[in-house]
Design a protein that fits this description.
The complex is a heterodimer of chains A (792) and B (166). Chain A is α+β, with helices and mostly antiparallel strands and 792 residues long. Chain A has 20 helices and 30 strands. Chain A has three domains: 30-143 and 208-287, Aldehyde oxidase/xanthine dehydrogenase, a/b hammerhead (Aldehyde Oxidoreductase, domain 3), CATH 3.90.1170; 299-439 and 446-471 and 637-791, Aldehyde oxidase/xanthine dehydrogenase, molybdopterin binding domain (Aldehyde Oxidoreductase, domain 4, 2-Layer Sandwich); 487-633, Aldehyde oxidase/xanthine dehydrogenase, molybdopterin binding domain (Aldehyde Oxidoreductase, domain 4, 2-Layer Sandwich). The longest helix of chain A has 27 residues, at 553-579. The model of chain A has no long low-confidence stretch (mean pLDDT 96). Chain B has a five-stranded mixed sheet with strand order 2-1-5-3-4, sandwiched between helices. Chain B is globular. The chains are: A alpha+beta (792), B alpha+beta (166). At the A-B interface, helix 1 and helix 18 of A face helix 2, helix 3, helix 4 and helix 5 of B.
Chain lengths: 792, 166
């Protein structure tokens, strides 16, 4: 941990301001908000994965007690409510644009996944709405359904959207195919792997919710929503879906109980609540049941990849190639197209100096829930490919795994990879070295022998990951197809009494911005931490911002604050100069005090702030009154957190159960504002990565029914599934933002899965092991190993 | 609609409710005590944990009508609004045992019950096993375990493990 200049400044593990309301049950989450006259919405959802809607009879439902309205897709279309969209254009190899289908908020002619909404009931109470929803008679004509993307592309597969022949959305590629082929031809060793990156459900513990209210007197719509990005929601819902003009829509994201990406996207439910609220003239609230979340929240991952690594005789990597099928589900969700392309292929160089890379990705429609970004978004998929290839190559070639990595680490910066990303700064040897010490890898051999005496197999797995976050430079992502810029905004308001409000376009859903942003401001202005408030999440209060995801709030959001603080300092100095009758250039600002250089004249922060607003010491022609500044900050590059995670497991050969006995993480996040919060982010990310590797997986059967539809069947990591974590930090500051922050929110989820699988495969002696490596999967793999060794 | 009366956080309350009303709905919607949360529909996540007659229960799995005369403590009942925090609450704050805060009320209520049953000197293994009924998606549990161990010790200093607010 770095030395702090104060107990509440940058680098201090300050206890969080937001905790008080959460630990006393006084948080205000969307479902906690109650509006006068509020009604409740219950959706009627398709039990079929693929079907024509023949008819909807709401007669009986409308007569049920408490029912205010029953609305269908036909009425939505009649009211000219538009389609939900995917906002990132991807082109195929042949130059054609991605095949984006319509995505009405309530299905009209056809349903395309189990859970697709066909009607909504608005009633006085939740129970009444559900009772009436059960009475809506929908006649379906079931169609053949397909859940597997490879099958979806095959001849004779059911066609889901007319716009996409063979259910293929795009066929994208990145890199130099010819150079890569040549490198493979010349390689001494080629490692090949078939990898499934298992489909996951984010399952933030707070279910999604939306509460919409219409004021007919002002023609104003208000939406409370569990959103990671209220301004983006406002823009999409107004400009693209066409509910109402942008300036007539207010979106409020109050306390949000976790997101992990799943609350970025604009979903049908909030659109329907807004439309219905205006139609029935009363507020409409919807909160997901958990099993409903499983059928409507965007899922994550779901890649099938064939990957190959080409090396020379010394284990120097010559090339990497990967062919991936990405399952995007029944509709293209808001950012879905970007995840298996520019957030995935561009990280296939890993920490290594790889001369040639070629990546092909087919994105496919299936009759499953739409798939979009989930913690890591594309980078876990890339890291799993790279770190498994490298570990397996090391084993095949008889080179110690850290040695093989060291031979290939990038050592000079900036480093231009063959896949767009230009890594600005890093020291991968430093994190590896520190991790090896912290993990006591030297002692592993003895621990392995001791364990073997008790019939347990110990294994060690490495993951030296890198990722690209601090999303993102607007021009760069624009050139890659993004429909939006990914800058961030901040407004710093100094009050006359000297306290400060910072209005940020980011929106925390657990990351502690009310604390970390205040630390930054407090240190910069030399004012008490308690005198700084952070405001976020309300489009009426905060100017446009892009929200929180992609580990961007520190790198991009705080940079905007810094730029605004620069302007504040400059103006405050002007005010101080007038107050002290000095030249502006002679004013020094330090530790909350303004002094005239070379004199003992000084002015306190709160005197200067008061003077800025009283405006007696200067004329309007000399200086505008007030002390409030804005910045929109566009980063100059992605940031590149990187590090080394080492997983040590013990496998029980009788049960196949894997216990993680040690977890070591050494990460380089550049500048760290609050080490306690950063470590918490790493813990949470690792837990999700271990969940993916050992426990989780959303499974569809051959009829595209979601078999893992609740917490009964989808295994969520519990405390006893996880170890405590040893966390270390190294630091190479990011050169592409003023604070040198790289960001830390997703790194754990990116690094962890290959570390786990590398460790288990090391323990059991076979590479044929897919995620999740449940006890059953590991036990079965062990049986195969034993059978093979007996046969051989 | 049938009537029910009980004591919640030391106050006598009553209501006329549908038979199928769950305790968590009674608390959240009828009493406007929204600190107790709903996170799942299969009684697994633990965001709804409260204390009934001194023991932790999942309020999503109890019918409110079955609690005639019961003493219920929710997260809001652990401390006076501007008074000192319960040592377990303070421990969660000191040890960064929460991020988004949504599972936290249930975690804290469960944690207090773990101390009641297992004492003030809790090791990591015990805490992890005992948290089987509480799911957190944000923290990875590392700091929750630290918080509960610290809170348990702090509750010993306070005297007997505290139950309902007065």
């Amino acid at each position: 941990m770095s030395v702090t200049s104060s107990a509440t400044g940058i680098g201090a593990s300050v206890r969080r301001k937001e905790d008080l309301r959460f630990i006393t049950g006084r948080g205000q989450y969307t479902d906690d908000v109650v509006r006068p006259g509020e009604t409740r919405a219950a959706f009627v959802r398709s039990p079929h994965a693929h079907a024509k809607i023949k008819s909807i009879d709401a007669g009986a439902a409308k007569k049920m007690p408490g029912v205010v309205a029953v609305l269908t897709g036909a009425e939505l279309a009649n009211d000219k409510i538009g389609s939900l969209i995917c906002g990132w254009m991807i082109h195929s190899k042949d130059g054609s644009p991605m095949k984006m289908s319509a995505h009405p908020a309530i299905a009209a002619g056809k349903v395309n996944h189990v859970g697709d909404a066909v009607a909504v009931v608005i009633a006085e109470t939740k129970g009444q709405a559900r009772d009436a929803a059960d009475k809506v008679k929908v006649e379906y004509e079931p169609l053949p359904a397909v859940a597997d993307p490879a099958k979806a592309q095959a001849k004779g597969a059911p066609q889901i959207h007319e716009v996409a022949p063979n259910n293929t959305i795009y066929q994208w590629h990145l890199g130099d195919q010819k150079a890569t082929e040549a490198a493979f031809a010349a390689a001494k060793h080629v490692t090949k792997l078939d990898i499934v990156n298992n489909r996951l459900v984010a399952n933030a513990i707070e279910p999604r919710a939306a509460l919409a209210e219409y004021d007919s007197g002002t023609d104003q719509l208000t939406l409370w929503n569990t959103s990671q990005n209220p301004h983006v929601a406002r823009l999409v819902i107004s400009a693209f879906v066409g509910i109402t003009p942008e300036h007539k829509l207010r979106v409020i994201a109050p306390d949000v109980g976790g997101g992990f990406g799943s609350k970025i996207f604009i979903y049908p439910e909030e659109v329907v609540c807004l439309w219905a609220a205006r139609k029935v003239g009363r507020p409409v609230k919807w909160t997901a049941e958990r099993s409903e979340s499983f059928l409507t929240d965007a899922h994550g991952r779901d890649h099938v990849t064939h990957a190959e690594l080409a090396l020379d005789a010394e284990g120097k990597i010559l090339a990497l190639r990967a062919k991936t099928i990405a399952n995007l589900g029944a509709y293209m969700s808001t950012f879905s197209s970007s995840v298996p392309t520019y957030l995935y292929g561009t990280l296939l160089s890993g920490q290594y100096d790889i001369p040639s890379i070629y990546c092909e990705v087919d994105a496919v429609y299936t009759n499953t829930v739409p798939v979009d970004a989930y913690r890591g978004a594309g980078r876990p998929e890339a890291t799993f490919v790279v770190e498994r290839l490298v570990e397996v190559a090391a084993r095949e070639m008889g080179i110690e795994p850290t040695e093989l990595r060291k031979r290939n680490f990038i050592k000079s910066f900036p480093h231009q990879t063959p896949v767009i990303m230009n890594y600005d700064a890093g020291d991968y040897n430093a994190s590896l070295k520190k991790a090896l010490e912290l993990a006591d890898v030297k002692g592993f051999g003895k621990r392995k022998r001791d364990a073997a005496r008790h019939g347990k197999l110990r294994g060690l797995g490495y993951s030296t990951y890198i990722e690209a976050c601090g999303i993102a430079p607007s021009q760069a992502v624009g050139s890659l197809g993004a429909g939006v810029g990914l800058w961030e905004s901040a407004e710093v308001r100094v009050n006359p009494t000297g306290s400060v409000e910072v209005l940020t376009g980011t929106h925390a859903h657990g990351q502690g911005h009310e604390t970390t942003f205040a630390q930054l401001v407090s240190e910069r202005l030399g004012i008490p931490f308690e005198n700084v408030s952070i405001v976020h999440g309300d489009t009426d209060k905060v100017q446009f911002g892009m929200g929180t995801y992609g580990s961007r709030s520190g790198a991009v959001g705080m940079s905007a604050v810094v730029k605004a603080l620069d302007k504040i300092e400059a103006k405050a100095k002007k005010v101080a100069a007038f107050m002290m009758e000095a030249a502006e250039g002679d004013i020094v600002f330090k530790d909350g005090k303004f002094t005239v250089a070379g004199t003992d004249k000084s002015a306190a922060w709160s005197d200067v702030s008061l003077n800025a607003y009283i405006a007696h010491k200067f004329t309007g022609a000399e200086l505008e009154p007030g002390l409030k500044e804005t910045s929109f900050y566009d980063p100059t590059n992605f940031t590149f957190p990187a590090g080394c995670h080492i997983c040590e497991v013990e496998v029980d050969t009788e049960t196949g159960n894997t216990e993680i006995v040690n977890w070591t993480a050494v990460d380089d996040f550049g500048t760290v504002i609050n080490p306690m919060i950063v470590e918490g982010q790493v813990h949470g990310g690792i837990a999700q990565g271990i969940g993916q590797a050992l426990l989780e997986g959303a499974i569809y059967d051959k009829d595209a029914q979601l078999v893992t539809g609740s917490f009964m069947d989808y295994s969520m990591p519990r405390a006893h599934n996880l170890p405590s974590f040893k966390i270390g930090l190294t630091e190479t500051k990011s050169p592409s933002n003023p604070l040198g922050i790289k960001g830390c929110g997703e790194a754990g989820a990116i690094a962890a899965p290959p570390a786990v699988i590398n460790a288990i495969t090391d323990a059991i002696g076979t590479e044929q092991l897919a995620m999740p490596a449940t006890a059953n999967a590991v036990w079965s793999a062990l049986q195969r190993v034993n059978a093979a060794s007996h046969a051989g | 609609m049938p009537a029910v009366s009980m004591t919640v956080n030391g106050k006598a309350v009553s209501g006329n409710i549908e038979e199928r009303t769950l305790l968590v709905q009674f608390l959240r919607e009828h009493l406007r005590l929204t600190g107790t949360h709903v996170g799942c529909d299969t009684s697994q996540c633990g965001a709804c944990v409260v204390h009934v007659d001194g023991k932790s229960v999942k309020s999503c799995t109890l019918l409110a009508l079955s609690l005639e005369g019961a003493q219920v403590t929710t997260i809001e009942g652990l401390a006076e609004p501007n008074g000192p925090l319960h040592p377990m609450q303070e421990a969660f704050r000191q040890n960064h045992g929460l991020q988004c805060g949504y599972c936290t009320p249930g975690m804290i209520m469960s944690a207090i019950d773990i101390v009641r049953r297992k004492g003030n000197d809790l090791d990591e293994h015990t805490i992890r096993e005992e948290l089987d009924g509480n799911i957190c998606r944000c923290t990875g549990y590392h700091n929750i375990v630290k918080s509960i161990a610290a809170g348990a010790k702090a509750m010993a200093k306070d005297g007997a493990p505290r139950q309902a607010a007065e």
